[in-house]
Amino acid sequence: MTAVSKANALFRANQIRTEMGGGGNTAQRVGSLLVDMVDSTMFTPAVTADPVTNTAGIQAAIDAAHAAHLGGLPGTVVVLPAGSIPLAASVLADVLFSAGAAVAPSTGCLVMRDGVTLRGEGVGRTVLRPAAPALTAVLVRNGSNQTIADLEIDGQSVASLEAGHGILQVLSANDPTIVVAGLLIESVLVRRVGGLGVGVQNGNLSRALLRNVATFRTGANGVDVKNRGSAENANGVRLENIFVDTFGLQLPDQAGVDVAGIVTLSGVQVVNAGRAAVVQH
């Protein structure tokens, strides 16, 4: 059984899907977005073969969902259809930081916002493909009350150390004390990226959960979670059912799973390591 097959088996065995209200005839179109305003506020961006169009449309949906969340509307969800979705560099002007260094949005494709769920139709069905290896597929801005679920990210290359990450959490200000509460990354496969598979390394994490996450062939760590916050705010930072296959292809001192601070591990499996499988600082 291949690594990807193993990851898919893990998802089928453990995946817990959230049922979103159907809405019947309550759906209405706002620009290119289909919006259901009843049981949840769902945004369905159009997807094409053009990475620039896709990035603009999905980002518009994320921004609209964030605005709906700020307005008190329930269940702000961006729903991605099945298929291969090419993505281009972000054109946002946000100022972002990671470990004290500035991160330009143009180094990534999509920028998530608080209160938003980004959900596909499952691993192997909804596949995000950055158009260039240097791009990070998803930048998670802060991460409070955010969910990324039921999708795959294929960076398509691990040939360069300068390549992007799969998912990278960053901050909206150069302030490591920012509390990040309620981040969920679930049923996600990241493969063939030159950097981290999934990196959650910034701010004071609370109620953060990575569940049913798999990485395959990453240049750096497969999964990297650094809880740099204080103990009183570090409630429920957990990694559950994590599968990592082949990592550190650009940096030989990397680990399959690298965590620091107060983080609980359960059901972690690292294969084809040849070096430290799990490092806990």
Protein model, in words:
Helices cover 11% and strands 42% of the residues. The chain contains two helices and 23 strands. The strands form four sheets. Strands 1, 2, 3, 4, 5, 9, 10, 12, 15, 18, 20 and 22 form a twelve-stranded mixed β-sheet that branches. It has a seven-stranded parallel β-sheet with strand order 8-11-13-16-19-21-23.
List keywords for this structure.
single chain; about 280 residues; mainly beta; twelve-stranded mixed beta sheet; seven-stranded parallel beta sheet; 2 helices; about 10% helix; about 40% strand; globular
Low-confidence spans: pLDDT under 50, at least 5 residues?
A: 12-39
Distance between the termini: 33 Å
Number of strands: 23
Which value, in Å, is the CA radius of gyration?
Answer: 17 Å
Q: What does the overall shape look like?
A: globular
Give the % helix: 10-25%
Strand content: 35-45%
Derived structural class: mainly beta
The SSE string, one letter per element, is HEEEHEEEEEEEEEEEEEEEEEEEE
Report the average pLDDT across residues. Answer: 85
User: Given the structure, what is the number of helices?
Assistant: 2
Give the biggest beta sheet. Answer: 12 strands, mixed
Write the layout of secondary structure elements.
Layout: H1 3-14, E1 27-30, E2 33-37, E3 41-44, H2 51-70, E4 76-79, E5 83-87, E6 96-98, E7 101-103, E8 108-112, E9 117-119, E10 126-130, E11 136-141, E12 146-154, E13 167-170, E14 179-181, E15 183-193, E16 198-200, E17 204-206, E18 209-218, E19 223-226, E20 238-245, E21 257-260, E22 264-271, E23 278-280
Parallel strand pairs: 3-4, 4-9, 5-10, 8-11, 9-12, 10-12, 11-13, 12-15, 13-16, 14-17, 15-18, 16-19, 18-20, 19-21, 20-22, 21-23
Antiparallel strand pairs: 1-2, 2-3, 6-7
